[in-house]
């Protein structure tokens, strides 16, 4: 029998078009036989991997896809098991999730919030995906997170670094393994003060959109707390390809550090331009001029080439970490694809395992059960040491890496080196921290 | 004052890139009457000529170094470029170092070849077709070219540095009596500016002082009449297309060290180059060059803090604001001719 | 009937039937079969088909009739979406005020942009519209973030005022009668078909808008617009003022775009700034040309094609390919997969690019006209003449 | 007082005196030809008459109203129709549609939104258009694409479109330029027929003496931007100044 979804005001009380084959409403409906959206029917469980496959972040998306595919193999008991062997929780048995073989579908976010939502919706509506994983920008993450909340599936956020994702835009159905702008600032500031001194004057170039702003605010707050002075903050248009006109005035501003709050193509170009101007060769205020890139990624470092040498930045994770989990993951990823995984690949891999593990521990795919299992979950063995998924805002807390461009890289993957592993305690903050204020988690939505 | 001088330098530099791309585009507009949405892709392919040459020069054989290990803990494979083993490490290294300037020579035949193939194989059949069809086919071609590059080189930008001698920056200020470090400008950007000036000068001289150029200019002014004179204008137009492609390609080659090339860099420049051409006036070469420099300089000024603090976000839209003002005050852009692409 | 001649009526009925039966037509393959990947009959994509259909129909009223090629129509789509989401934020989730506002706001934007841009023609006009749209996009993404929520896109927060909200409202709905997202799934053997309320709302509006566009095409006004395209000199010396005609066409097509934007936001209450980017403006140009500019049905076909490739081809990955070609011997399988891989998944752009070139080379005039040519060729010479006659008396078919 | 009065019109382009002290009066219901060698200022004068160029000094009055500074569509609405050197018709439209548009313009003025009415229901307009086509002997071609017609037929259609608005003054700019002899004669016959059947003033700018002497009732000869003489065709034929300025050049 068919059941209507007409709302309570329900002027048209349902008189269902009952027919032999007319069955139940599926997703997005108020009630049905299913207890939650896309409840697996026994033939397996489908995960949705939504990553940029076209546009400037395509390479990052590809790496995320590789990692997710690897995670699916490991969940299904194929391959060497990777991090499943080092994971502190032993709920996963290599027989899929709750006995269901894991399948996956992929989509292209195009790094546009519209396209990403369309792609995620098609996974949920058409392919019956029960969880969406991946992505490579904060705008997309927030947009897709909102969608998953409405649709009643779990969202694991991929690469998103804006404070808003688990701040003013946090959602009960969404989780983020990646670190955020505040954590970058908190991890970087002491290292910077150490390396360059406490009496520094910083000039910020900031990508003129939400992520750039939160990144800049975090860096400014953290460095000023260390005694730095902020000379200026200049917003640069997203569409800029040539940053020369923003970099040219830096030397005359009295600043001796340039902070590039840019990501992706913007960062590759602004860093390249800054190095072209020879800023690092100059002495200002009697000190060597320095450049800082708060958020690093391996692919960006590769794109900027030798320009990253000596430049300090932060990262969520890096393949050069020496813990057992990292070693296991790098080994199975490297053997399969012939290259070390990037930090966004690591995030997506780990999130897939964590989701599966949470299902196992909750004994259900019901998003509310899964969310409950993830909230406040403490674990180890997935890189970055002991890790917490905080219940208040679904932000993950773990050690943060401070990186530096390597002076003499030995091969194409050896672009960055770990300067310091900032302990988790140092990057933690209260859930009601002003930078994360506004918005509420809401209640988990199982969608049915 | 120093800030203004700096921004003028920046403007000239940006402007030379805009002018070079717009020059080729307007040549194609003016001579062939074709809206070429693949022009940005030609610029991108030029940049990838530089990337390719540097990859070719870096072709290496591998030797296994037992003393080092790679990321999986296996013995490290050390790569040695053939060039280095043939010419000795020093000469070899400096050849590799000079990959981008060498790519100028490498790219000219390639770009002209691509231009010929495009014109003979595709564009030729679209002279008489509506502009809408030209847009669709050239846009499709641009996507295909992009995807081919993406397939071979990936989506990530590829660093393509300038030769070591051109690294760092030149202190202009000391020449003008300023303190050191007040007005500095990167060597390679100065090279780019000079290079653009040479190319633009060459194209103009070619059109001005050769018979070929005269015919082409006559063809730009009045295609039918020139055709009636019994001159084989088609062949000349093919050559013109090759030249336009080469100009775009050279602009790309030299741009590679300024910003690491990636497969969609052409699309980033496409809209801008159309704006430049139209602001300059359809079918006018000097107009395109003038508009390129004008927009470059204004864009640089708009990014100055003093101006941004008065008008937040002005640097986001300056190009478009200027374009609107110019098109409303001068119906055919700076130097456009009547009747070209007005319907 | 309805003021249409027989031929137009037939076309309208076909479009209406296709729209109403889309859930069946777009899901021709059993859910669990390997070909199910090609099914497009899920709510989100069906909604996009008809919404972008509306967008393209409207664009065609400007471009197809007057020949003015606007490269900035996405701006109207964007402001339409923003208006609707703002209505959600200020009033409640009822979509009607939002959609009405989006049409009005887009119309006002179109009056201003059109008035200025129509002072020029040809490519100068195109660049003026492009400039306005790019300014809107750049500002929406950055400086105007308080109004547009920039990078993330405008969305509804629980902290928004929503002065008229009732506590049962959580998603967009129509006067509380039905929620836009409610869907019935009909299982018929191995097949399953989705009937989505939002889709049907959009489909009905699309058919209405299609009807309106036929009326405009066949009206004296439509004839005047074609006269503008054909010869502005003669138009002026016939005592007609071309400017208000083109401005009217511009505003109408802007309002169509606003409606499309409003519907997009009603189906999915989020308005991203990318909707206004030049690529989005370019997309509707491509849709219209691909389908056939100046033909009635072409733009809808073009919109369907592009959205299909974007949403279906981009989702085919290596695993799916191996499933499909699993029956082949291993070496061959890998070879085939390797080739096909370039055209699907992350290579869907390539397919689209090749498609654009193929269509414009082999089917000049777009898919619809190309289709007609093929039909004519098949039918032989006699009907050839007939067909020519009809296209000549109603060249805007 | 003529229906069209041109007084003391001067126009300079840079250093070139294109029109110098032009005075011209076109009588109502007459056929007045303006001739002159190349560069005599014929086109400039025409452009002044239809408001495209504003003269430096002087006035152009049509039926007591100034035409200067008016837009082309306003001038047309005043009752002046113009036929161009190369026929300007709506090439993408059918012959019948070409004919309907001026009739719409006559009825509805410069702009009116009939966006949802059907053209097919405008019976009156269609009837008038078909009637006009019949009188032009073009009824058979009414569903043809107008761009595909011969030049003579295009000219015919253009003149018909102008006449359908019942103008008081018809301006013709070298109406037979580039035509074959037969087409030229057809056009002359058409114009004669119009002159006989209607109350209409025709001003014609022409190069072809055959056309001028077949049609004109009065002729103004322009030379170097100024009217040389104005008289009847017979007088003009023998006028020594004309021979000198005009035929002398061609000799």
From TrEMBL, chain A:
Q: Which UniProt keywords apply?
A: Amino-acid transport, Receptor, Signal, Transport
**Listed InterPro entries:** BCAA_transport, Leu-bd, Peripla_BP_I, TAT_signal
Q: Where is the Leucine-binding protein domain?
A: 45-406
PROSITE patterns the record matches:
TAT (PS51318)
Keyword field contains Signal: yes
**Keyword Signal in annotation:** yes
BP-aspect Gene Ontology terms: amino acid transport
- Return any one Pfam family short name: Peripla_BP_6
Signal peptide, first to last residue = 1-35
Instruction: Name the protein family.
Output: Belongs to the leucine-binding protein family.
Report what the protein is called.
Receptor family ligand binding region
> Lineage from the top down?
Bacteria, Pseudomonadati, Pseudomonadota, Alphaproteobacteria, Rhodobacterales
TrEMBL record, chain B:
Q: Where are the transmembrane segments?
A: 16-35, 42-61, 98-123, 190-216, 237-258, 270-298, 310-328
GO biological process terms held by the UniProt record: amino acid transport
InterPro entries, from UniProt?
Answer: ABC_transp_permease (IPR001851), BCAA_transport_permease (IPR052157)
Localization terms from the record: Cell membrane
Give the principal location in a single coarse category.
membrane
Question: What is a single cellular component term in the Gene Ontology annotation?
Answer: plasma membrane
The record's GO molecular-function terms, alphabetically, read:
transmembrane transporter activity
UniProt entry keywords in alphabetical sequence: Amino-acid transport, Cell membrane, Membrane, Transmembrane, Transmembrane helix, Transport
- Cell membrane as a keyword of this entry, yes or no, is yes
Membrane topology type, per the record?
Multi-pass membrane protein
| Domain of life, source organism | Bacteria
- Annotated signal sequence is none
What is stated as this protein's family in its record?
Belongs to the binding-protein-dependent transport system permease family. LivHM subfamily.
Q: What is this protein called?
A: High-affinity branched-chain amino acid transport system permease protein LivH
Protein's gene: livH_1
TrEMBL record, chain C:
Regions crossing the membrane = 46-63, 94-116, 123-144, 197-217, 244-264, 284-309, 346-368
- Quote the cellular component terms of the Gene Ontology held in the record: plasma membrane
Q: List where in the cell it is found.
A: Cell membrane
InterPro entries attached here? ABC_transp_permease, LivM-like
What domain of life? Bacteria
Task: List the protein's name.
Answer: Leucine/isoleucine/valine transporter permease subunit
UniProt keywords (A-Z) are: Cell membrane, Membrane, Transmembrane, Transmembrane helix
One Pfam short name: BPD_transp_2
UniProtKB/TrEMBL annotation, chain D:
Amino-acid biosynthesis as UniProt keyword? no
What GO CC annotations are associated with the protein? plasma membrane
A GO molecular function assigned to this protein is: ATP binding
Q: Where is the ABC transporter domain?
A: 4-249
**Gene3D superfamilies this protein is in?**
P-loop containing nucleotide triphosphate hydrolases
Coiled-coil stretches: none
Write down the top EC class of this protein.
hydrolase
Keyword Transport in record: yes
The protein's Enzyme Commission number: 3.6.3.-
State the UniProt keywords alphabetically: ATP-binding, Hydrolase, Nucleotide-binding, Transport
Output the superkingdom of the source species: Bacteria
| Designated name of the protein | Lipopolysaccharide export system ATP-binding protein LptB
Question: Per the UniProt entry, what species is this protein from, by scientific name?
Answer: Roseovarius litorisediminis
Q: Which gene encodes it?
A: lptB_1
């Amino acid at each position: 029998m068919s059941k209507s979804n007409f709302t309570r005001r329900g002027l048209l009380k349902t008189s269902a078009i009952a027919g032999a084959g007319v069955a139940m409403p599926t997703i997005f409906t108020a009630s049905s036989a299913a207890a939650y959206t896309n409840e697996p029917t026994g033939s397996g469980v489908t995960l949705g991997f939504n990553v940029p496959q076209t546009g400037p972040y395509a390479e990052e998306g590809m790496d995320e896809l590789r990692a997710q595919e690897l995670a699916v193999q490991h969940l299904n008991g194929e391959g060497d098991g990777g991090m499943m062997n080092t994971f502190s929780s032993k709920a996963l048995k290599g027989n899929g999730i709750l006995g269901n073989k894991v399948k996956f579908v992929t989509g292209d976010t195009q790094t546009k919030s519209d396209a990403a939502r369309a792609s995620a919706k098609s996974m949920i509506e058409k392919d019956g995906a029960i969880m969406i994983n991946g992505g490579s920008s904060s705008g997309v993450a927030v947009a897709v997170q909102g969608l998953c909340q409405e649709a009643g599936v779990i969202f694991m956020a991929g690469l998103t670094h804006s404070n808003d994702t688990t701040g003013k835009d946090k959602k009960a159905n969404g989780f983020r393994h990646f670190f955020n702008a505040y954590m970058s600032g908190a991890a970087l500031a002491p290292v910077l003060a150490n390396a360059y001194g406490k009496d520094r004057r910083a000039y910020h170039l900031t990508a003129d959109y939400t992520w750039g702003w939160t990144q800049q605010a975090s860096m400014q707050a953290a460095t000023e707390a260390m005694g730095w002075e902020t000379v200026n903050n200049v917003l640069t248009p997203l569409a800029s390809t040539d940053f020369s006109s923003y970099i040219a005035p830096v030397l005359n501003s009295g600043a001796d550090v340039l902070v590039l709050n840019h990501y992706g193509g913007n960062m590759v170009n602004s860093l390249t331009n800054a190095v072209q101007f020879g800023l690092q060769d100059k002495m200002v205020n009697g000190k060597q001029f320095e450049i800082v890139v708060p958020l690093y990624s391996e692919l960006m470092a590769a794109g900027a080439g030798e320009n990253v040498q000596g430049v300090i930045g932060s990262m969520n994770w890096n393949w050069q970490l020496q813990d057992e989990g990292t070693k296991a993951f790098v080994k199975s990823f490297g053997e399969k694809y012939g290259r070390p995984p990037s930090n966004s690949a690591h995030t997506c891999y780990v999130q897939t395992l964590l989701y599966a593990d949470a299902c196992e521990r909750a004994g259900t795919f019901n998003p509310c059960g899964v969310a409950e299992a993830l909230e406040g979950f403490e674990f180890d063995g997935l890189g970055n040491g002991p890790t917490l998924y905080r219940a208040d805002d679904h932000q993950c807390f773990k050690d943060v890496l401070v990186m530096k461009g390597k002076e003499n890289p030995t091969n194409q993957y050896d672009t960055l080196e770990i300067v310091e592993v900032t302990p988790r305690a140092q990057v933690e903050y209260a859930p009601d921290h002003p930078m994360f204020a506004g918005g509420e988690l809401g209640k988990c939505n199982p969608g049915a | 004052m120093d800030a203004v001088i700096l921004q003028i330098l920046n403007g000239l530099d940006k402007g030379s890139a805009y002018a070079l791309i717009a020059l080729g585009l307007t040549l194609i507009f003016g001579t062939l009457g074709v809206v070429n949405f693949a022009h940005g892709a030609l610029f991108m392919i030029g940049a990838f000529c530089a990337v390719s040459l540097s990859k070719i020069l870096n072709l290496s054989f591998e030797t296994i170094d037992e003393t080092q290990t790679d990321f999986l803990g296996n013995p490290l494979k050390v790569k040695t470029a053939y060039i280095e083993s043939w010419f000795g490490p020093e000469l070899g290294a400096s050849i590799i170092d000079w990959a981008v300037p060498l790519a100028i020579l490498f790219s000219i035949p390639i770009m002209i070849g691509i231009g010929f193939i495009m014109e003979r194989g595709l564009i030729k059949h679209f002279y008489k077709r509506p502009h809408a069809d030209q847009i669709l086919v050239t846009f499709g071609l641009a996507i295909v070219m992009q995807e081919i590059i993406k397939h071979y080189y990936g989506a990530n930008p590829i660093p393509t540095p300038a030769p070591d001698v051109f690294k760092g920056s030149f202190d202009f200020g000391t020449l003008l009596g300023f303190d050191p470090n007040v007005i500095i400008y990167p060597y390679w950007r100065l090279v780019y500016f000079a290079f653009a000036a040479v190319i633009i000068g060459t194209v103009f001289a070619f059109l001005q002082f050769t018979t070929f150029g005269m015919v082409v200019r006559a063809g730009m002014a009045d295609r039918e009449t020139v055709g009636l004179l019994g001159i084989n204008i088609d062949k000349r137009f093919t050559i013109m297309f090759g030249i336009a492609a080469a100009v775009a390609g050279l602009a790309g080659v030299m741009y590679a060290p300024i910003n690491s090339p990636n497969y969609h860099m052409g699309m980033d420049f496409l809209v801008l180059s159309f704006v430049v051409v139209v602001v300059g006036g359809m079918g006018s070469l000097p107009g395109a060059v003038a508009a390129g420099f004008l927009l470059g300089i204004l864009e640089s000024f708009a990014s100055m803090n003093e101006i941004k603090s008065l008008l937040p976000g002005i640097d986001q839209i300056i190009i478009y604001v200027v374009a609107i003002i110019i098109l409303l005050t001068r119906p055919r852009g700076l130097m456009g001719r009547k009747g070209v692409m007005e319907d | 009937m309805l003021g249409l001649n027989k031929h137009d009526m037939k076309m309208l009925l076909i479009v209406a039937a296709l729209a109403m039966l889309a859930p069946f037509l777009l899901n021709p393959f059993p859910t669990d079969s390997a070909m199910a990947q090609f099914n497009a009959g899920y709510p989100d994509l069906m909604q996009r088909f008809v919404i972008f259909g509306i967008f393209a129909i409207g664009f065609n009223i400007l471009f197809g009739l007057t020949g003015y090629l606007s490269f900035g129509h996405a701006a109207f789509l964007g402001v339409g979406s923003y208006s609707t989401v703002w209505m959600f934020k200020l009033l409640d989730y009822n979509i009607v005020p939002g959609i009405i506002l989006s049409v009005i706001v887009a119309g006002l934007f179109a009056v201003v942009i059109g008035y200025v841009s129509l002072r020029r023609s040809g490519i100068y006009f195109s660049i003026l519209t492009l400039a306005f749209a790019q300014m809107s996009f750049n500002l929406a993404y950055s400086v105007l973030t308080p109004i547009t929520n920039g990078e993330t896109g405008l969305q509804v927060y629980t902290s928004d005022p929503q002065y008229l909200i009732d506590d049962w409202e959580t998603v967009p709905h129509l006067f509380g009668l039905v929620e836009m997202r409610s869907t019935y799934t009909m299982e018929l053997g191995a097949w399953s078909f989705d009937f989505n309320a939002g889709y049907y709302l959009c489909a009905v509006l699309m058919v209405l808008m299609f009807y309106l566009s036929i009326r405009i095409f066949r009206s004296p006004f439509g004839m005047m617009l074609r006269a503008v395209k054909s010869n502005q000199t003669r138009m002026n010396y016939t005592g007609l003022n071309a400017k208000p005609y083109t401005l009217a066409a511009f505003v109408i097509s802007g309002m169509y775009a606003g409606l499309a934007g409003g519907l997009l936001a009603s189906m999915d209450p989020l308005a991203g700034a990318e909707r206004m980017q030049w690529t989005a403006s370019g997309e509707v140009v491509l849709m219209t040309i691909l389908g056939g500019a100046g033909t009635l049905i072409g733009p809808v076909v073009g919109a369907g094609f592009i959205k299909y490739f974007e949403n279906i081809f981009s989702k085919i990955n290596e695993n799916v390919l191996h499933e499909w070609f699993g029956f082949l011997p291993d070496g061959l399988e890998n070879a085939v997969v390797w080739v096909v891989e370039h055209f699907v998944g992350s290579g869907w752009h390539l397919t689209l690019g090749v498609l654009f070139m193929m269509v414009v080379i082999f089917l000049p005039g777009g898919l619809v006209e190309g289709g007609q040519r093929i039909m004519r060729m098949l039918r032989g010479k006699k009907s050839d003449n007939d067909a020519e006659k009809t296209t000549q008396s109603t060249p805007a078919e | 007082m003529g229906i069209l009065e041109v007084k003391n019109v001067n126009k300079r382009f840079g250093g070139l005196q294109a029109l110098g002290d032009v005075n011209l009066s076109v009588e109502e219901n007459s056929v007045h030809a303006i001739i002159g060698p190349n560069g005599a200022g014929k086109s400039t004068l025409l452009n002044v008459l239809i408001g495209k160029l504003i003269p430096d000094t002087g006035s152009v009055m049509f039926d007591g109203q100034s035409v200067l500074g008016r837009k082309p569509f306003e001038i047309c609405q005043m009752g002046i129709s113009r036929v161009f050197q190369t026929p300007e018709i709506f090439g993408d439209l059918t012959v019948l549609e070409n004919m309907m548009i001026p009739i719409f313009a006559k009825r509805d003025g410069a702009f009116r939104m009939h966006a949802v009415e059907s053209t097919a229901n405008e019976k009156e307009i269609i009837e008038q258009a078909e009637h006009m086509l019949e009188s032009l002997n073009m009824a058979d071609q009414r569903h043809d694409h107008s761009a595909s017609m011969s030049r003579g037929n295009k000219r015919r259609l253009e003149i018909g479109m102008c006449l359908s608005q019942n103008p008081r003054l018809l301006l013709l700019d070298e109406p037979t330029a580039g035509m074959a002899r037969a087409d030229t004669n057809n056009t002359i016959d058409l114009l004669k027929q119009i002159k006989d059947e209607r109350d209409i003033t025709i001003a014609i700018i022409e190069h072809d003496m055959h056309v001028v002497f077949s049609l004109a009732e009065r002729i103004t000869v322009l030379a170097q931007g100024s009217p040389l003489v104005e008289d009847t065709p017979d007088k003009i034929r023998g006028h020594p100044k004309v021979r000198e300025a005009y035929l002398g050049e061609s000799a």
